[in-house]
Design brief:
- The complex is a heterodimer of chains A (269) and B (703).
- Chain A is of the alpha/beta class and 269 residues long.
- Chain A contains 8 helices and 10 strands.
- A 6-stranded mixed β-sheet of chain A has the order 6-7-8-3-9-10, sandwiched between helices. In chain A, strands 2-1-4-5 form a 4-stranded antiparallel β-sheet, covered by helices on one side.
- In chain A, α3 packs parallel to α5.
- By secondary structure, chain B is of the alpha+beta class.
- Among the domains of chain B are: 195 residues, no CATH class; 231 residues, no CATH class.
- Chain B has a 9-stranded mixed β-sheet.
- In chain B, a hairpin with a 2-residue loop joins β5 and β6.
- The chains are: A alpha/beta (269), B alpha+beta (703).
- Chains A and B meet through α1, α2, α3 and α4 of A and α10, α11 and α21 of B.
Chain lengths: 269, 703
C-alpha cells in the first residue's frame, strides 16, 4: 500500500486517491478583537486501510481538526476531501447523507442512545439510510459478531459495562462500512482492561475488514496500536512517526520520546 | 449583583420560562375575570342583575376551587423548572456562593417572573372580563344598558391575595428543595434520570390488558346501571365501584401502554427498522413510562372537563329550547291538589274575587285536568302498563314520574279543543272509543309515539280505547302550566263522556292578553306573589281558591316569569360548566407542555447524537413532532373514549328534561378544547423545535 509523507500533496498518478485529504486547513474562533487560531494550516492525507492516531496536548487543536473532518464544524480556510468529495461544498442536506454514508463515529462517552437497546443503536445508521429490515438485521449481527458484542445486543446501554458500550458504539460506527472511521478519545472513559479490548478490536477491524480509522487520543498506549501517529501542537502539524515493522512496545517508546520533546518545548516557552 | 444575575437568568432561560409564564398569566386572567362576574350585573337590566347577584355565592365557592387548581398548576410548573435548574444552582455553590445568596437569587427570580406574569395576567383579565360581559348579556338575553370599561378592585385584591399565597408556597418549596439536596446530587441532576423509563414488556402487556379490562367493565356497568338517584336500581356503592374501575383502569392503561405498543411495533420489522421509528417509539415509551401517573391524572381531568362542558351545554340547550315552548301562553292560572277532587273549583271566579276580571285582560279558556285513576281496573293508565302490553321500552329516568306512578293525566276532548282555540289551532276529533296522547317532553313523546304506533289499546269506562292517530300531539296546546322546563309527562285526551267520573286534580286557566305583554302582566299583578320568579299565587288569590276548596293551592305563572326562571338556570349552568371546563383544560395542557419541554431538554443530547450520525434534520423534527403529538393526544383520546361512554349515559338523563342536541353542544365543547389544548400543543412544539435546533447546531465541546 502506498504511503505518502504527511503535509505534502500526494504525487500525481498515485494508484488510488487517499480516503482523507486535509490541505492547509485553518480554523479561527471568535471575532477580530479576540480571535483564537485553533488550526493554523494543517495538511496531511490518510490512505485507505490506514490506522492513524492524532496526538497532541490539550488545546493543540486536535479535536477541532477532528470536528472539521467530521463535518460537524467548518474550517475557516483550506480544503478537506473525504473519499474525493470536498466537504465544504456540501449543502446541509447532503452533509447529513455524507456523514451517514462516508463516516463512522466513536466518541469518548460512547454516546449510545440510552433509550435504545444495543441492537437498535447499531441499526440506527442503517435504518436512517432505509436499508431493508432483513438486510439490516443481518448486517447488525455480523458487525456485532466482529466486535464481540453479540451477547449484549438486547441490553440497554445502562445494562452494559463501559467497554461493551464503547464496542457497541464502534459497531454502530462501522456497520455502514464507511470510508473513514473517526474516533475521538475512544478509550478516555475506560479502564486499562477495557481499553486493551477495545483497541484490539479496532486493530482487528483495521486488519481483517480493512477499515480506515483515524483516532484522536492523548493516551500513548492507545496510540501505539496504530500504524502511524501524527503530532499536533499549537494548531500545526508538529511531526509524525510510522510504526513500520517495530513491535508495539518499541513504537510506544518512540511515541513517548516525541511527547516528551513536545511537552519540553511547551514548558520552555 | 445578585439581582443582575437573577434578571440575567430569567432572560437567558426565557424559552423554558415562556410556557410557565404564559400559564401563570392565563391563570391570573381567568381568575380575575371570574371574580368580576358579580360586578357585571351593574351593566345589565335589573332583572338579570338580580339573578347574577344571586349567583355570586355559588361563584365564590368556585373561586376557591379555581384558586386551588391554579395554585397547584403554578407549583407544579415551578417544580419542573427547579429540576431543570438544579445543576446551575449547584454550580453557584461550587463557585463559593453561600446558600443564603443562592436562595436570594432564586427568590428574586421567582418574584420577577411572578410580578411580570401577574401584571400581564391582570391586563388580560381586564380585557377578558369586558368580553365576558357581552357573553353574559347574550346568555341572559338582555341588553348591556350603559357600557363603559370597568375595573374591579375587589377582584384585583382577591387575585393578588391568592397569587401571593401561591407564590409563597412556591418559594418555600424551592428553598426547601435547595436546602435538602446535596451538592453532589445537584451537580449530577442531569444524569440522574437516564435510566428511567424501561419496563419489562410482558409486565406491561399484563398491566395494559388489566387496565383495558377494568375500563371496559366500567363502561358496561355504566351503560347498564346508569346513575344513582336517576336510574332505578343504581346504587351509590355500585356507582363508586364503577368510578373506581375507571380510575384504576386508566392508571393501569397508561402504566402498560408504552410497553404494549412497543411490543406490538417490534412485531413489525418493516416498520420498526425504518427511519427513526424505533427511536421515536423508544423515546415515547420512556416518556410515557416516566410520566404515566400524571398522564392518567390529566386524562381523567380532561374527561371530567369534557363531560362537564358537554353536559352543561346539553342541559342548557335543552332548557333554552324549551323556554318558549313550555311558556306557550301569556299566563296560566291554576288550582291544584293531587289527593282531592277539585270538580267544584272555578279559578276564573277566584281571580275575580281577588280583584282581576280575566275578561278584561284578554281571552281565556278554563279546562280541567283529571287523573286516570279509576279509569281502568286496578288504577291508572301507566307507562308501565303500556310497556307490558306493547313491549316498547320505557325511557330512562321515568320510573318515579307521575305518568308511571299515578298514570297519565286525562282531559276531555272539548276542554282540550277549547284551549286549542286560544292558540288558533284546529280542534281534534275523537270517536267514542278513541284516545289521543298529548305530551311536550321529547323523550316521553318518543315512547308514546312507539306505543301509539304499536296500536296500544286499553279497556275502561265500559269500552276498549284505540289510538285515534299514531302520533303524539306536541304543539303548544299540549303544555299545561307555563314553566321554564317540561314537567308534564303525558296526558290522555278522551271523549267527554268517558272522563266524567274521573277525579279533577288541576283546574287550569290559560290566558291570552288582549294588549301587549307589559300591560297584561300588570293587570295580572294582583294575583302574583312578591318576587319575580315565584309561581304561587298572591294571598288574595290563594284564599279565594281556598274558599272554594280548602285542599286547593293557587298558582299563577306569566310567560315573562317562566322565561326569567329558565334563563337564570341556563346561565348558571353554562357559566359553571364553561369555566370549570376551560380552567381544567388549560391546567392539563400546561402540565403536558411543561412535561414535554422538560423531556425534550433531557433528550437534547440524543438529538445531537442523531445529527452527528448523519440523520437529516427533517427526520429529527418529524420524530420530535410525533413524540409530542402522541403525548398530547394519548390522554385526550382516552378522555374522549371515557366521555363518549359517560355522555351516552348522561344524555339519556338530560333527555328527561327535554330535547337535547348533542351535535351542537359537543361541537362547542370540542371547539373550546381545540383552541386551548391545541394551542398549547402548537406552542410546545415551537419551543421544542427551537430547543432541538439549538442542541444540534451546537458543536461538540472541544477537548
Amino acid at each position: 500500500m502506498a504511503r505518502h509523507a504527511a503535509g505534502a500533496m500526494p504525487p500525481a498518478g498515485a494508484a488510488s486517491a487517499p480516503v482523507l485529504q486535509v490541505s492547509n486547513v485553518e480554523k479561527t474562533y471568535g471575532s477580530k478583537g479576540g480571535a483564537t487560531r485553533a488550526l493554523n494550516g494543517v495538511s496531511f492525507a490518510v490512505e485507505e486501510g490506514e490506522f492513524t492516531a492524532i496526538m497532541g496536548p490539550s488545546g493543540s487543536g486536535k479535536s477541532t481538526l477532528l470536528n472539521c473532518i467530521a463535518t460537524i464544524d467548518r474550517p475557516t480556510a483550506g480544503a478537506i476531501l473525504v473519499d474525493g468529495a470536498d466537504t465544504a461544498r456540501l449543502s446541509a442536506r447532503k452533509l447529513a447523507d455524507f456523514r451517514r454514508e462516508k463516516l463512522g463515529f466513536i466518541f469518548q462517552d460512547a454516546n449510545l442512545l440510552d433509550t435504545l437497546t444495543g441492537r437498535e443503536n447499531i441499526a440506527l445508521p442503517l435504518s436512517i439510510g432505509r436499508v431493508p429490515a432483513d438486510a439490516l438485521q443481518r448486517q447488525v449481527e455480523d458487525t456485532a459478531h466482529a466486535l464481540g458484542v453479540t451477547d449484549v445486543l438486547d441490553r440497554y446501554p445502562y445494562q452494559m459495562s463501559g467497554g461493551q458500550r464503547q464496542r457497541v458504539a464502534a459497531a454502530r460506527a462501522i456497520v455502514t462500512q464507511p470510508a473513514l472511521v473517526l474516533a475521538d478519545e475512544p478509550t478516555g472513559a475506560l479502564d486499562s482492561k477495557n481499553t486493551k479490548i477495545l483497541l484490539e478490536s479496532l486493530d482487528r477491524l483495521n486488519r481483517d475488514l480493512g477499515s480506515t480509522i483515524l483516532m484522536v487520543t492523548h493516551d500513548e498506549a492507545a496510540a501505539s496500536y496504530c500504524r502511524r501517529v501524527l503530532f499536533i501542537r499549537d494548531g500545526r502539524l508538529f511531526t509524525q512517526i510510522r510504526r513500520g515493522d517495530a513491535s508495539r512496545h518499541d513504537f510506544f517508546d518512540r511515541i513517548m520520546s516525541v511527547v516528551a520533546t513536545m511537552g519540553g518545548a511547551e514548558d520552555a516557552r | 449583583m445578585l439581582a443582575k444575575l437573577a434578571v440575567g437568568n430569567v432572560r437567558r432561560s426565557a424559552r423554558s420560562y415562556t410556557l410557565y409564564f404564559v400559564t401563570l398569566a392565563i391563570g391570573v386572567a381567568v381568575f380575575y375575570a371570574f371574580n368580576t362576574v358579580s360586578l357585571q350585573a351593574d351593566f345589565l337590566d335589573s332583572n338579570a342583575s338580580d339573578m347574577l347577584e344571586s349567583l355570586d355565592d355559588v361563584l365564590s365557592g368556585l373561586t376557591v376551587f379555581l384558586a386551588v387548581i391554579m395554585g397547584f398548576l403554578m407549583v407544579y410548573a415551578n417544580s419542573f423548572l427547579m429540576r431543570r435548574r438544579k445543576q446551575e444552582l449547584g454550580l453557584y455553590q461550587v463557585l463559593g456562593m453561600r446558600r443564603g445568596q443562592v436562595s436570594e437569587i432564586l427568590a428574586m427570580e421567582t418574584l420577577l417572573v411572578g410580578l411580570v406574569s401577574f401584571a400581564v395576567g391582570i391586563a388580560g383579565g381586564v380585557l377578558l372580563s369586558q368580553l365576558l360581559l357581552f357573553v353574559t348579556s347574550g346568555l341572559f338575553e338582555v341588553a348591556v344598558t350603559h357600557y363603559k370599561l370597568f375595573f374591579s378592585t375587589d377582584a384585583l385584591g382577591m387575585t393578588a391575595g391568592c397569587f401571593a399565597v401561591t407564590f409563597a408556597v412556591m418559594l418555600a418549596l424551592n428553598l426547601v428543595t435547595l436546602r435538602r439536596v446535596r451538592l453532589v446530587d445537584l451537580m449530577g441532576a442531569r444524569r440522574a434520570n437516564e435510566r428511567n423509563g424501561v419496563r419489562s414488556l410482558p409486565v406491561s402487556v399484563v398491566l395494559f390488558a388489566a387496565g383495558l379490562g377494568a375500563v371496559i367493565a366500567a363502561y358496561v356497568r355504566l351503560s347498564r346501571e346508569g346513575f344513582p338517584g336517576f336510574t332505578q336500581g343504581a346504587t351509590q356503592t355500585g356507582f363508586l365501584i364503577t368510578t373506581a374501575l375507571v380510575v384504576v383502569g386508566t392508571v393501569l392503561l397508561f402504566f402498560g401502554l408504552a410497553g404494549t405498543v412497543t411490543a406490538l411495533l417490534q412485531k413489525m420489522p418493516r416498520f420498526w427498522w425504518r427511519d427513526l421509528n424505533a427511536f421515536t417509539a423508544r423515546q415515547l415509551a420512556s416518556r410515557v413510562n416516566t410520566t404515566c401517573a400524571s398522564m392518567a391524572v390529566v386524562s381523567l381531568v380532561l374527561f371530567v372537563a369534557l363531560t362537564s362542558v358537554t353536559t352543561g351545554m346539553a342541559i342548557c340547550t335543552a332548557l333554552n329550547g324549551q323556554a318558549n315552548r313550555h311558556a306557550a301562553v301569556d299566563a296560566t292560572l291554576n288550582a291544584t291538589n293531587l289527593s282531592g277532587d277539585l270538580s267544584n273549583v272555578d279559578v276564573v271566579e277566584a281571580a275575580r274575587t281577588a280583584g282581576v276580571d280575566l275578561g278584561q285582560v284578554g281571552s281565556y279558556a278554563q279546562v280541567r285536568v283529571r287523573q286516570s285513576q279509576g279509569l281502568v281496573d286496578g288504577g291508572g293508565v301507566t307507562m308501565q302498563a303500556m310497556t307490558d302490553a306493547t313491549g316498547v321500552e320505557a325511557p330512562a329516568g321515568y320510573e318515579a314520574a307521575y305518568a308511571n306512578t299515578l298514570g297519565l293525566w286525562v282531559m276531555s276532548a272539548s276542554d282540550f279543543n277549547a284551549q286549542r282555540a286560544l292558540f288558533g289551532l284546529e280542534p281534534v276529533s275523537l270517536g267514542g272509543d278513541e284516545y289521543l296522547i298529548a305530551c311536550t317532553m321529547d323523550s316521553a313523546s318518543d315512547f308514546y309515539n312507539k306505543v301509539l304506533a304499536a296500536g296500544y289499546s286499553f279497556g275502561g269506562a265500559g269500552r276498549t280505547f284505540h289510538p285515534a292517530q299514531t302520533a303524539v300531539i306536541d304543539d303548544a296546546s299540549a303544555q299545561l302550566e307555563n314553566s321554564s322546563n317540561t314537567t308534564d309527562t303525558g296526558m290522555l285526551i278522551l271523549p267527554d263522556d268517558a272522563t266524567a267520573g274521573l277525579p279533577v286534580y288541576d283546574v287550569l286557566v290559560k290566558v291570552r292578553y288582549a294588549g301587549d305583554t307589559e300591560a297584561g302582566d300588570a293587570a295580572l299583578a294582583p294575583l302574583a306573589s312578591e318576587g319575580s320568579t315565584a309561581t304561587v299565587g298572591s294571598d288574595a288569590f290563594l284564599s279565594a281558591v281556598e274558599a272554594q276548596n280548602p285542599d286547593a293551592i293557587a298558582f299563577m305563572v306569566t310567560r315573562t316569569s317562566a322565561l326569567a326562571a329558565g334563563v337564570s338556570i341556563t346561565a348558571l349552568i353554562v357559566y359553571l360548566a364553561l369555566y370549570i371546563g376551560f380552567v381544567l383544560v388549560v391546567a392539563c395542557a400546561a402540565i403536558m407542555a411543561v412535561q414535554q419541554l422538560s423531556a425534550t431538554t433531557d433528550s437534547a443530547g440524543r438529538y445531537r447524537t442523531l445529527h452527528e450520525l448523519g440523520c437529516p434534520d427533517q427526520a429529527i423534527f418529524r420524530s420530535v413532532r410525533a413524540q409530542s403529538g402522541v403525548m398530547f393526544a394519548a390522554p385526550l383520546a382516552v378522555a374522549l373514549a371515557h366521555s363518549l361512554c359517560a355522555l351516552a349515559a348522561v344524555l339519556k338523563l338530560v333527555k328527561t328534561f327535554g330535547y337535547a342536541d348533542l351535535g351542537q353542544t359537543a361541537a362547542f365543547a370540542v371547539g373550546i378544547f381545540i383552541v386551548a389544548y391545541g394551542g398549547y400543543f402548537v406552542a410546545t412544539y415551537r419551543a421544542e423545535h427551537g430547543m432541538v435546533r439549538q442542541a444540534i447546531s451546537r458543536t461538540r465541546r472541544a477537548l
